[in-house]
Structure formats: structure tokens, C-alpha cells
Automatic annotation (TrEMBL):
Pathway entry: Amino-acid biosynthesis; D-alanine biosynthesis; D-alanine from L-alanine: step 1/1
Lineage: Bacteria, Bacillati, Bacillota, Bacilli, Bacillales
A Pfam family matched in the record: Ala_racemase_C
Requisite cofactors: pyridoxal 5'-phosphate
UniProt cross-references to Gene3D superfamilies, sorted A to Z: Alanine racemase, Lyase, Ornithine Decarboxylase, Chain A, domain 1
Keyword Plastid: no
Positions of substrate binding: R142
One of the protein's GO biological processes: D-alanine biosynthetic process
The name this protein goes by in its record: Alanine racemase
SMART domains assigned: Ala_racemase_C (SM01005)
GO cellular component: cytosol
EC number in record: 5.1.1.1
Gene label: alr
Length: 379
């Protein structure tokens, strides 16, 4: 679906977020899930740059069962905006955050004694129950408890008052890369740990291990819930998955031509003169720069679309402007729409293209787009 240029209005640059596409992506993911699997929509990092509140609301409408974020602040913001679904904090909290977690009814992960005790104390104090998930480190070595420590830990802390052990989970290190030997080994470690705990009487009703890749590719590891993030926004973690599920990018990034000029041959352009014209060339200036999160690394490398044609970025990207070569694109006018991510005519640029130019990934490209870039929601 394309929006007319006036969506940009007076704004120099917008990120257009298509909520219908977002809903379709969730539906497509639900379609590949094992019957009865819960879906936690992971919308951390301001919904990977798409805007956490509108995306959370749309996730609810699309039938997500739960929401996952990284920080307590994000969880509190969702609650203050009326979100009622269970909200998971996927990063470790520190004991000081226990009161927000309990009072805003957030679900924390527990992988240390300190956090278990702080949540228990706070829950007791306010007469509530803190719902928690035990996090196990099976090889990512970021958060989580060493599997060997889980049984002694449960012996000491499972029955702490005020805690409700609703779930247990892990996060794989190398699923996106398709390293299935490693991933299956991590999965077995998780399952063996859970079995050992359950044998000893420590139960965890909701077991979950999988992000987008597992949701798409490994039904055998769906367990009780999956936690897709980037796939909701239309990007497969790996291109090999494109055959398995149809996903469409949710965000388009659009800017405007704000200046046009003709330069003589052998003219150096931009800071440091990093580009030099080879003939008489026409240069366009667009109103986006690395201050908008359009990375400086795209200097002399990236491409944009204007008038249905590709134009090369030339010279060094500055904080607020980017120069493009429009010599081969006739009939341009100041104010013309320029597509940085999205489609125009037959041409298309995706966040994956930008990630490739930058030797980065899609998550970084999307989440880097600054808040000053207005998010415009269309349905
Ligand atoms: C970010 C994250 C996810 C979502 O990952 P995607 O690869 O974007 O689907 C799931 N679980 C945890 C614990 C995460 O940190």
C-alpha cells in the first residue's frame, strides 16, 4: 500500500508504519505455530524503532497473548498506556526495580538470589504475588542461571513467599545462523534441566526457548510459547526462511529533496571532499542525516529511490543532510519524495539492503532511526 506524498506534510523525514502489514505478519507467524502455542510479541527497543505504544495496541488486536520488552521503563510505559496483557521483562532487573515490577504487574526473569529475594520482599510488602520465570543460560552466556545451579537454587528459593513461578526459559545463541547442532545441544540442556527440576517437584507451567527463527523453522521447539521479535516487523532473521513464511516490511522511511544543484566536472562534494564529480553532474540534497539515525557508514555506499529510480549517495553523510547523484534522473522538483526504505515504482530498498551496505543487521538499522523522525501510522 502506498501513501501519497502529502503524508510527509511539513516533515522533513517520516517513518511510515503500516499496521495492516504488522497484523498480517503476526497472522503469518501464528499460522506456522504448533497448535496451542502462545505468542509473546517481542517489542523491545521501542518496537525495533516502530513505536512501542501503537505497535503494542496492534499486537493485542492481532491476537498476541503476551508482550515482551527489555527494560522495566518500557513495561511501565505500556501499563500507563492501558495495556492489559502479561508483560515480560526479558533483561535482568536489579533489586531496586522490584517495586516497579511488582506494582505494575510485570513478569521478571529470575536468575539470581538477589532478584528472587527482592521480588519476594516487595510482593510481601504490598500483599501481591510476583509472577516470575526462571532464566537458564544454555550457551548465550548473557543472562541466566548455570543449569547446574538450578536445583540447589530451587531448593532454597522456589518456595519463597510472594513468588509465582509461572515459567522457565532460555535464549539460544546461534539459531539465526542455522547452527542446528549447537542449538539442539542447547535445547537438550534446557529440557534436561527442566526435567530434573520437575522430578524434584519444581514445576514451571510455561516453557519457552524460541525467538523468530525457532517460531519459523522449528515447530519441534515451540513448547508452550514462542517469542518472535524482528519477524513481526517483516524481516526473516535469515534469508533461508523466505521460502517458509511470507513476511512484509512494516516500516518505510521517506524523506524529501530540499535542494538541487549542477556541478562542473572534477568538483569535490561534501565534508572532506570524499566524492568528486566525473562530468557535469546534478546533485540532490535530502533532508536526512546520521542525526536521524541514517548511518554515516552509508556515505558513498548507500542508495535511495527518487522518481522510481535508484540514486547513489555521494560524499559524506552529515548530521542532517545526505547528498545524492541525480544526474540520470530528469524532471526532479524540490519537495519530491525520496525513499530510503520502501518501494517506489519498480524499485525497492529494504532495511536488509542497508544492513548489508553497513555490514550490520536489520535490528540495528531499524532501531537506530531516531525519535525525531516522525512515525506516521497507516492501516
Ligand atoms: C530479542 C529477544 C527475542 C526476539 O528475538 P528475534 O530474533 O528478534 O525474534 C526473544 N527472546 C529474547 C530473550 C530476546 O532478547
Amino acid at each position: 500500500m502506498s501513501t501519497p506524498f502529502h503524508a510527509l506534510g511539513n516533515h522533513h523525514t517520516i517513518a511510515e508504519i503500516n499496521l495492516t502489514t504488522f497484523r498480517k505478519n503476526i497472522k503469518a507467524i501464528k499460522h506456522v505455530l504448533k497448535q496451542g502455542t502462545l505468542i509473546m510479541a517481542v517489542i523491545k527497543t521501542d518496537a525495533y524503532g516502530h513505536g512501542i505504544i501503537p505497535i503494542a495496541q496492534e499486537a493485542v488486536r492481532a491476537g498476541a497473548n503476551r508482550i515482551g520488552v527489555t527494560t522495566v521503563e518500557e513495561g511501565v510505559k505500556l501499563r500507563k498506556n492501558g495495556l492489559l496483557l502479561p508483560i515480560h521483562i526479558l533483561s535482568s532487573i536489579i533489586p531496586d526495580q522490584a517495586s516497579d515490577v511488582v506494582n505494575y504487574n510485570l513478569i521478571a526473569q529470575v536468575s539470581t538470589e538477589d532478584v528472587a529475594k527482592a521480588l519476594s520482599t516487595e510482593a510481601e510488602r504490598v500483599g501481591k504475588e510476583a509472577t516470575v520465570h526462571l532464566k537458564i543460560d544454555t550457551g548465550l552466556h548473557r543472562f541466566g542461571m548455570n543449569p547446574n545451579e538450578t536445583l540447589p537454587f530451587c531448593k532454597k528459593y522456589y518456595s519463597l513467599s510472594g513468588l509465582c513461578w509461572e515459567g522457565i526459559y532460555t535464549h539460544f545463541s546461534s539459531a539465526d545462523e542455522g547452527e542446528w547442532n549447537t542449538t539442539e545441544q542447547q535445547y537438550r540442556l534446557f529440557m534436561n534441566t527442566v526435567a530434573q527440576l520437575e522430578e524434584a517437584g519444581y514445576t514451571f507451567p510455561i516453557k519457552h526457548v524460541g525467538a523468530s527463527t525457532i517460531a519459523i523453522e522449528r515447530e519441534d521447539m515451540h513448547l508452550d510459547m514462542v517469542r518472535p521479535g524482528i519477524a513481526l516487523f517483516g524481516y526473516h532473521p535469515s534469508l533461508r526462511q523466505e521460502k517458509q513464511i511470507m513476511l512484509e516490511p512494516v516500516m518505510s522511511l521517506k524523506s524529501k529533496l530540499i535542494h538541487l544543484k549542477t556541478l562542473a566536472p572534477n568538483t569535490k562534494v561534501g565534508y572532506g571532499g570524499k566524492y568528486s564529480t566525473t562530468k557535469t553532474e546534478q546533485i540532490g540534497i535530502i533532508s536526512i542525516g546520521h542525526g536521524d539515525g541514517y548511518k554515516r557508514g552509508l556515505s558513498n555506499i548507500g542508495k535511495v529511490i527518487v522518481n522510481g529510480k535508484e540514486a547513489n549517495i555521494i560524499g559524506t553523510i552529515s548530521l542532517d543532510q545526505t547528498l545524492i547523484n541525480v544526474t540520470e534522473i530528469p524532471n526532479l522538483t524540490i519537495g519530491d519524495e525520496v525513499i530510503l526504505i520502501g518501494k517506489q515504482g519498480e524499485k525497492r530498498i529494504s532495511a536488509r539492503d542497508i544492513a548489508n551496505w553497513l555490514d550490520s543487521n536489520v535490528d540495528e538499522v531499524l532501531a537506530s532511526i531516531m525519535v525525531r523522525v516522525l512515525r506516521v501510522y497507516i492501516t
